[in-house]
# Entry
Amino acid sequence: MPKPLSKPNLKLTLPSSDEESVAKFLTVSGTFKVGDLLVNKDGLRIVSENGEVQPPLVKPSDNQLSLADLDTIKVIGKGSGGIVQLVRHKFTGQFFAIKVIQMNVLESVRRQIAQELKINQSSQSPFIVVWYQSFYDNGVISIIMEYMDGGSLSDFLRHVKTIPEPYLAVICKQVLKGLIYLHHEKHIIHRDLKPSNILINHAGEVKITDFGVSTILASTSCQRDTFVGTCNYMSPERISGGTYGLKSDIWSLGIVLLECASGYFPYMPPHEQGQWVNFYELLEAIVDQPPPCAPSDQFSPEFCSFISACVQKDPKNRKSAPELLKHPFVNMYRDLDINLASYFTTAGSPLATF
# Structure
Protein backbone atom coordinates (compact mmCIF):
# COMPACT_ATOMS: atom_id res chain seq x y z
CA MET A 1 0.00 0.00 0.00
CA PRO A 2 1.39 3.44 -0.88
CA LYS A 3 2.65 5.54 1.99
CA PRO A 4 1.35 9.04 2.78
CA LEU A 5 2.99 11.89 0.93
CA SER A 6 6.11 13.35 2.45
CA LYS A 7 6.31 16.88 3.75
CA PRO A 8 9.46 18.91 4.24
CA ASN A 9 10.98 18.55 7.70
CA LEU A 10 11.34 21.91 9.42
CA LYS A 11 13.80 22.68 12.20
CA LEU A 12 13.10 25.17 14.94
CA THR A 13 15.73 26.68 17.18
CA LEU A 14 14.80 27.59 20.74
CA PRO A 15 16.81 30.17 22.66
CA SER A 16 17.90 27.63 25.25
CA SER A 17 19.98 30.16 27.15
CA ASP A 18 16.91 32.28 27.88
CA GLU A 19 14.50 30.26 30.02
CA GLU A 20 11.81 32.97 29.96
CA SER A 21 11.82 33.01 26.16
CA VAL A 22 11.57 29.23 26.05
CA ALA A 23 8.65 29.25 28.50
CA LYS A 24 6.87 31.89 26.46
CA PHE A 25 7.36 29.91 23.26
CA LEU A 26 5.96 26.80 24.84
CA THR A 27 2.86 28.66 26.05
CA VAL A 28 2.12 30.50 22.83
CA SER A 29 2.65 27.53 20.53
CA GLY A 30 0.56 25.08 22.55
CA THR A 31 3.55 22.85 23.24
CA PHE A 32 4.71 21.00 26.28
CA LYS A 33 8.27 19.85 26.79
CA VAL A 34 9.60 17.21 29.16
CA GLY A 35 13.35 16.59 29.23
CA ASP A 36 14.45 16.21 25.64
CA LEU A 37 10.90 15.54 24.44
CA LEU A 38 8.65 18.18 22.84
CA VAL A 39 5.11 17.62 21.54
CA ASN A 40 3.04 20.19 19.62
CA LYS A 41 0.74 20.50 16.60
CA ASP A 42 3.66 19.59 14.32
CA GLY A 43 4.28 16.29 16.07
CA LEU A 44 6.55 14.70 18.63
CA ARG A 45 10.20 15.77 18.48
CA ILE A 46 13.48 15.50 20.30
CA VAL A 47 15.26 18.68 21.44
CA SER A 48 19.05 18.61 21.30
CA GLU A 49 21.28 20.07 24.02
CA ASN A 50 21.78 23.30 22.04
CA GLY A 51 18.02 23.86 21.82
CA GLU A 52 17.55 22.72 18.21
CA VAL A 53 14.27 20.88 17.63
CA GLN A 54 14.83 17.82 15.48
CA PRO A 55 12.39 16.66 12.76
CA PRO A 56 9.27 14.81 13.93
CA LEU A 57 10.04 11.44 15.51
CA VAL A 58 8.73 8.85 13.08
CA LYS A 59 9.95 5.42 12.12
CA PRO A 60 12.68 5.53 9.45
CA SER A 61 10.51 3.78 6.87
CA ASP A 62 7.57 6.14 7.31
CA ASN A 63 6.87 9.48 5.73
CA GLN A 64 5.60 12.30 7.91
CA LEU A 65 1.85 12.40 8.61
CA SER A 66 -0.25 15.48 9.19
CA LEU A 67 -3.67 15.72 10.84
CA ALA A 68 -4.77 18.07 8.08
CA ASP A 69 -4.32 15.27 5.53
CA LEU A 70 -6.71 12.90 7.33
CA ASP A 71 -10.49 12.66 6.92
CA THR A 72 -12.50 11.30 9.85
CA ILE A 73 -14.76 8.36 8.95
CA LYS A 74 -16.34 7.47 12.30
CA VAL A 75 -15.71 6.80 15.99
CA ILE A 76 -14.68 3.17 16.48
CA GLY A 77 -13.91 3.10 20.19
CA LYS A 78 -14.40 4.88 23.50
CA GLY A 79 -12.70 4.39 26.85
CA SER A 80 -11.30 6.06 29.94
CA GLY A 81 -8.31 7.23 27.89
CA GLY A 82 -10.37 9.01 25.22
CA ILE A 83 -11.99 8.13 21.90
CA VAL A 84 -10.61 6.32 18.86
CA GLN A 85 -11.55 7.46 15.36
CA LEU A 86 -11.15 5.74 12.01
CA VAL A 87 -9.55 8.13 9.50
CA ARG A 88 -8.47 7.95 5.87
CA HIS A 89 -5.49 9.67 4.28
CA LYS A 90 -6.77 12.10 1.64
CA PHE A 91 -4.11 11.34 -0.95
CA THR A 92 -3.36 7.63 -0.57
CA GLY A 93 -6.64 6.24 0.78
CA GLN A 94 -4.78 4.48 3.60
CA PHE A 95 -6.73 3.95 6.82
CA PHE A 96 -5.41 4.80 10.27
CA ALA A 97 -6.85 4.90 13.77
CA ILE A 98 -6.50 8.10 15.81
CA LYS A 99 -6.74 8.13 19.58
CA VAL A 100 -7.88 11.52 20.86
CA ILE A 101 -7.08 12.28 24.51
CA GLN A 102 -8.12 15.35 26.49
CA MET A 103 -5.09 16.41 28.51
CA ASN A 104 -6.94 18.14 31.36
CA VAL A 105 -4.78 16.28 33.88
CA LEU A 106 -2.10 17.11 36.41
CA GLU A 107 1.30 18.24 35.17
CA SER A 108 2.90 15.13 36.68
CA VAL A 109 0.56 12.95 34.62
CA ARG A 110 1.31 14.97 31.49
CA ARG A 111 5.00 14.29 32.06
CA GLN A 112 4.36 10.56 32.37
CA ILE A 113 2.30 10.56 29.20
CA ALA A 114 4.95 12.48 27.26
CA GLN A 115 7.57 9.89 28.16
CA GLU A 116 5.22 7.04 27.23
CA LEU A 117 4.63 8.65 23.83
CA LYS A 118 8.36 8.64 23.24
CA ILE A 119 8.65 4.96 24.22
CA ASN A 120 5.66 3.89 22.15
CA GLN A 121 6.75 5.64 18.99
CA SER A 122 10.21 4.11 19.21
CA SER A 123 8.73 0.61 19.53
CA GLN A 124 8.97 -1.62 16.48
CA SER A 125 7.51 -5.11 16.62
CA PRO A 126 5.10 -7.00 14.35
CA PHE A 127 3.18 -7.95 17.50
CA ILE A 128 2.63 -4.40 18.77
CA VAL A 129 0.21 -1.94 17.14
CA VAL A 130 2.24 0.70 15.31
CA TRP A 131 2.18 4.30 16.61
CA TYR A 132 3.04 6.53 13.66
CA GLN A 133 2.94 10.04 15.11
CA SER A 134 1.61 12.10 18.03
CA PHE A 135 0.35 15.68 18.08
CA TYR A 136 -0.60 18.13 20.82
CA ASP A 137 -2.83 21.14 20.20
CA ASN A 138 -5.43 23.03 22.23
CA GLY A 139 -5.14 20.69 25.19
CA VAL A 140 -5.64 17.53 23.14
CA ILE A 141 -3.22 14.72 22.27
CA SER A 142 -3.92 12.98 18.96
CA ILE A 143 -2.09 9.71 18.31
CA ILE A 144 -2.04 8.23 14.79
CA MET A 145 -1.93 4.45 14.98
CA GLU A 146 -2.15 1.42 12.76
CA TYR A 147 -5.75 0.44 11.98
CA MET A 148 -6.59 -3.17 12.86
CA ASP A 149 -9.68 -3.92 10.80
CA GLY A 150 -10.85 -6.92 12.83
CA GLY A 151 -11.33 -4.94 16.01
CA SER A 152 -10.40 -6.40 19.39
CA LEU A 153 -10.64 -9.86 20.91
CA SER A 154 -13.46 -8.43 23.01
CA ASP A 155 -15.37 -7.51 19.82
CA PHE A 156 -14.62 -10.91 18.32
CA LEU A 157 -15.85 -12.79 21.41
CA ARG A 158 -19.22 -11.06 21.18
CA HIS A 159 -19.75 -12.91 17.90
CA VAL A 160 -18.09 -16.28 18.45
CA LYS A 161 -18.67 -16.61 22.25
CA THR A 162 -15.70 -18.98 22.59
CA ILE A 163 -12.47 -19.57 20.68
CA PRO A 164 -11.40 -23.21 20.06
CA GLU A 165 -8.04 -24.29 21.43
CA PRO A 166 -6.20 -24.59 18.09
CA TYR A 167 -6.97 -20.96 17.18
CA LEU A 168 -6.36 -19.82 20.73
CA ALA A 169 -2.88 -21.40 20.66
CA VAL A 170 -1.92 -19.35 17.58
CA ILE A 171 -3.38 -16.17 19.09
CA CYS A 172 -1.53 -16.88 22.34
CA LYS A 173 1.77 -17.32 20.51
CA GLN A 174 1.52 -13.87 18.92
CA VAL A 175 0.53 -12.21 22.21
CA LEU A 176 3.46 -13.88 23.96
CA LYS A 177 5.86 -12.56 21.31
CA GLY A 178 4.44 -9.09 21.90
CA LEU A 179 4.96 -9.47 25.65
CA ILE A 180 8.50 -10.73 25.14
CA TYR A 181 9.24 -7.58 23.14
CA LEU A 182 7.69 -5.29 25.77
CA HIS A 183 9.17 -7.08 28.78
CA HIS A 184 12.64 -8.02 27.61
CA GLU A 185 13.52 -5.52 24.88
CA LYS A 186 11.69 -2.37 26.03
CA HIS A 187 11.50 -3.27 29.76
CA ILE A 188 7.85 -2.22 29.88
CA ILE A 189 5.01 -3.67 31.94
CA HIS A 190 1.79 -3.42 29.95
CA ARG A 191 -0.39 -3.12 33.11
CA ASP A 192 -3.70 -3.39 31.26
CA LEU A 193 -3.70 -6.59 29.21
CA LYS A 194 -7.32 -7.54 28.47
CA PRO A 195 -9.40 -8.65 25.45
CA SER A 196 -10.13 -5.08 24.35
CA ASN A 197 -6.39 -4.32 24.22
CA ILE A 198 -5.56 -7.25 21.95
CA LEU A 199 -6.39 -6.31 18.36
CA ILE A 200 -6.81 -8.50 15.30
CA ASN A 201 -7.05 -7.99 11.55
CA HIS A 202 -8.27 -9.96 8.56
CA ALA A 203 -4.70 -10.89 7.66
CA GLY A 204 -4.64 -13.08 10.78
CA GLU A 205 -2.36 -10.77 12.77
CA VAL A 206 -2.75 -10.33 16.53
CA LYS A 207 -1.21 -7.26 18.17
CA ILE A 208 -1.07 -5.70 21.62
CA THR A 209 -2.13 -2.09 22.04
CA ASP A 210 -2.81 0.54 24.70
CA PHE A 211 0.21 0.18 26.97
CA GLY A 212 1.24 3.36 28.70
CA VAL A 213 -0.89 6.40 27.94
CA SER A 214 -4.40 5.06 28.53
CA THR A 215 -3.29 3.12 31.57
CA ILE A 216 -1.80 6.24 33.15
CA LEU A 217 -5.03 8.16 32.56
CA ALA A 218 -7.20 5.33 33.87
CA SER A 219 -5.12 4.89 37.02
CA THR A 220 -5.31 8.59 37.89
CA SER A 221 -9.11 8.63 37.55
CA CYS A 222 -9.77 5.33 39.31
CA GLN A 223 -11.25 5.57 42.78
CA ARG A 224 -10.68 2.59 45.06
CA ASP A 225 -14.33 2.57 46.09
CA THR A 226 -15.52 2.63 42.47
CA PHE A 227 -15.56 -0.41 40.25
CA VAL A 228 -13.37 -0.06 37.16
CA GLY A 229 -13.66 -2.80 34.54
CA THR A 230 -9.96 -2.85 33.86
CA CYS A 231 -9.38 -4.21 37.38
CA ASN A 232 -10.87 -7.58 36.35
CA TYR A 233 -7.62 -8.74 34.83
CA MET A 234 -5.25 -7.43 37.51
CA SER A 235 -2.98 -9.85 39.32
CA PRO A 236 -3.48 -10.36 43.09
CA GLU A 237 -0.36 -8.36 43.96
CA ARG A 238 -1.42 -5.45 41.77
CA ILE A 239 -5.10 -5.18 42.68
CA SER A 240 -4.18 -5.25 46.38
CA GLY A 241 -1.83 -2.30 45.90
CA GLY A 242 1.39 -4.25 46.35
CA THR A 243 4.62 -4.23 44.37
CA TYR A 244 4.27 -5.83 40.95
CA GLY A 245 6.49 -6.57 37.99
CA LEU A 246 6.51 -8.12 34.52
CA LYS A 247 4.70 -11.23 35.67
CA SER A 248 1.60 -9.24 36.54
CA ASP A 249 1.00 -9.24 32.77
CA ILE A 250 1.32 -13.03 32.73
CA TRP A 251 -1.55 -13.36 35.21
CA SER A 252 -3.65 -11.10 32.97
CA LEU A 253 -2.80 -13.25 29.94
CA GLY A 254 -3.99 -16.38 31.73
CA ILE A 255 -7.29 -14.75 32.68
CA VAL A 256 -7.79 -13.48 29.11
CA LEU A 257 -7.14 -16.91 27.56
CA LEU A 258 -9.41 -18.68 30.02
CA GLU A 259 -12.20 -16.21 29.24
CA CYS A 260 -11.68 -16.71 25.50
CA ALA A 261 -11.82 -20.48 25.89
CA SER A 262 -14.77 -20.72 28.27
CA GLY A 263 -16.83 -17.75 27.13
CA TYR A 264 -17.10 -16.15 30.56
CA PHE A 265 -14.94 -14.19 32.99
CA PRO A 266 -13.29 -16.68 35.39
CA TYR A 267 -14.34 -14.87 38.57
CA MET A 268 -18.12 -15.10 38.72
CA PRO A 269 -19.78 -12.33 40.78
CA PRO A 270 -22.10 -13.34 43.64
CA HIS A 271 -24.95 -11.28 42.23
CA GLU A 272 -27.86 -12.19 39.99
CA GLN A 273 -27.13 -9.31 37.60
CA GLY A 274 -23.96 -11.12 36.54
CA GLN A 275 -21.42 -8.36 37.01
CA TRP A 276 -19.18 -7.03 39.74
CA VAL A 277 -20.61 -3.89 41.29
CA ASN A 278 -18.08 -3.34 44.05
CA PHE A 279 -14.31 -3.05 43.71
CA TYR A 280 -13.68 -4.60 47.12
CA GLU A 281 -15.71 -7.71 46.35
CA LEU A 282 -13.62 -8.27 43.23
CA LEU A 283 -10.41 -7.58 45.16
CA GLU A 284 -11.37 -10.10 47.84
CA ALA A 285 -12.20 -12.73 45.22
CA ILE A 286 -8.90 -12.34 43.37
CA VAL A 287 -6.73 -12.08 46.49
CA ASP A 288 -8.42 -14.61 48.80
CA GLN A 289 -10.01 -17.22 46.54
CA PRO A 290 -7.99 -19.99 44.87
CA PRO A 291 -6.86 -19.04 41.37
CA PRO A 292 -9.17 -20.07 38.53
CA CYS A 293 -8.41 -23.13 36.44
CA ALA A 294 -9.49 -24.60 33.14
CA PRO A 295 -11.91 -27.53 33.65
CA SER A 296 -10.03 -30.71 32.79
CA ASP A 297 -13.16 -32.32 31.33
CA GLN A 298 -13.53 -29.51 28.77
CA PHE A 299 -9.97 -28.69 27.74
CA SER A 300 -6.73 -30.44 26.90
CA PRO A 301 -4.18 -31.18 29.66
CA GLU A 302 -1.80 -28.84 27.84
CA PHE A 303 -4.21 -25.91 27.97
CA CYS A 304 -5.03 -26.56 31.63
CA SER A 305 -1.32 -26.65 32.41
CA PHE A 306 -0.71 -23.40 30.52
CA ILE A 307 -3.44 -21.55 32.43
CA SER A 308 -2.10 -22.88 35.72
CA ALA A 309 1.40 -21.65 34.80
CA CYS A 310 -0.02 -18.13 34.27
CA VAL A 311 -2.33 -17.70 37.25
CA GLN A 312 -0.13 -18.71 40.14
CA LYS A 313 -0.97 -16.32 42.96
CA ASP A 314 2.69 -15.93 43.89
CA PRO A 315 4.34 -14.16 40.91
CA LYS A 316 7.58 -16.03 41.62
CA ASN A 317 5.80 -19.23 40.63
CA ARG A 318 4.48 -17.86 37.32
CA LYS A 319 6.30 -18.63 34.12
CA SER A 320 7.83 -15.79 32.12
CA ALA A 321 6.76 -14.99 28.56
CA PRO A 322 9.85 -16.70 27.01
CA GLU A 323 9.19 -19.81 29.12
CA LEU A 324 5.53 -19.88 28.13
CA LEU A 325 6.42 -19.58 24.45
CA LYS A 326 8.03 -23.03 24.82
CA HIS A 327 5.02 -24.51 26.62
CA PRO A 328 3.45 -27.58 24.91
CA PHE A 329 0.07 -25.86 24.52
CA VAL A 330 1.50 -23.08 22.32
CA ASN A 331 2.96 -25.55 19.83
CA MET A 332 0.68 -28.59 20.05
CA TYR A 333 -1.46 -27.60 17.05
CA ARG A 334 1.25 -26.33 14.70
CA ASP A 335 0.93 -29.36 12.41
CA LEU A 336 -2.69 -28.41 11.69
CA ASP A 337 -1.61 -25.30 9.75
CA ILE A 338 -4.13 -23.06 11.52
CA ASN A 339 -5.34 -20.19 9.32
CA LEU A 340 -6.23 -17.24 11.56
CA ALA A 341 -6.94 -14.99 8.57
CA SER A 342 -9.72 -17.29 7.40
CA TYR A 343 -11.02 -17.78 10.93
CA PHE A 344 -11.18 -14.06 11.74
CA THR A 345 -12.86 -13.31 8.40
CA THR A 346 -15.50 -16.04 8.46
CA ALA A 347 -16.24 -16.24 12.19
CA GLY A 348 -16.05 -12.56 13.10
CA SER A 349 -18.04 -9.51 12.14
CA PRO A 350 -17.40 -7.36 9.05
CA LEU A 351 -15.79 -4.63 11.14
CA ALA A 352 -13.80 -3.36 8.20
CA THR A 353 -16.89 -2.12 6.35
CA PHE A 354 -17.95 1.52 6.62
Summary: The radius of gyration is 21 Å.
